[in-house]
């Protein structure tokens, strides 16, 4: 039975309602996974650096997932962006939900000689699937210097290079229903290009299937699943 760990983040400064939590809960509750025989484990992480040691790493050990999908919000983006890599770097400019900042070394792990850890997850296929739905999507190579990058780095390191093809972090934008009403420009109305909440759910469902099918390519066919 395939086992998938899905994570989202809780609130943090200036974001009292984190859309990554809403989307993570929605996709984890999709009854189709159970019908396919997949086991889904959900964790909503506190937006604190300490949660990596107390919540994320224990979840990886306890659930022993075959695939891991992490979600976070990128407030300045209007596209859905699977992340290609995470950096062993952290900024001291942005405090977490507890007011803490990164280590003075600016490293997430001073014992790790690698600055960058990359995934081999099918991020290009994910982008193609989302574009087929008419959604803006692109592969990103910059997961930031905040908790999203930190969680991704920790997951990739914990899983190791042999299992990183089954780990991916996806940044989602704020959905339309969580943004301010579209402003009008002189003579025309600006089109809000951000996806809706339901469009995000359908897109992430597609990404989940692609990620899990990569881990179990001998057991699943594309015809087994159709996201609706």
Describe the structure.
The protein is an alpha/beta fold and 228 residues long. The protein has one domain: Aminopeptidase, CATH 3.40.630. Helix content is 31%, strand content 18%. It is built from six helices and nine strands. It has helices spanning 19-28, 31-35, 50-63, 123-132, 147-159, 197-215; strands at residues 3-9, 39-45, 67-73, 81-83, 85-87, 116-118, 167-172, 184-185, 188-189. The strands form three sheets. The protein has a five-stranded mixed beta sheet with strand order 2-1-3-7-4, with helices on both faces. The protein has a two-stranded antiparallel ribbon with strand order 5-6. Strands 8-9 form a two-stranded antiparallel ribbon. Helix 1 crosses helix 6 (197-215) and helix 4 runs antiparallel to helix 6 (197-215). The longest helix has 19 residues, at 197-215. The chain is globular and about 45 Å long.
What topology does this entry show?
Blueprint: E1 3-9, H1 19-28, H2 31-35, E2 39-45, H3 50-63, E3 67-73, E4 81-83, E5 85-87, E6 116-118, H4 123-132, H5 147-159, E7 167-172, E8 184-185, E9 188-189, H6 197-215
Parallel strand pairs: 1-2, 1-3, 3-7
Antiparallel strand pairs: 4-7, 5-6, 8-9
